[in-house]
Fold:
Amino acid sequence: MGGKVSPNAVIVIKDGTTRLLSVKNQDTITKIMDMVPEVVHRLSKDKKGGPDDDTLKEAAFPEDDL
Structure:
């Protein structure tokens, strides 16, 4: 008896961000949907006057000094 293993997705960790990329049955719509979060992040990061990532993390997850 034997089995066959084929990947459905790959986890990519780059510059502190993690992405799950599908490698099976990718059509154009799926590829676009996978790219949208990265594009939004890049565009929002390029705007001047907005808070940086560290400020947003501190606002979302404040450290309590108890």
Notes: Residues 1 and 7 are 20 Å apart (CA to CA).
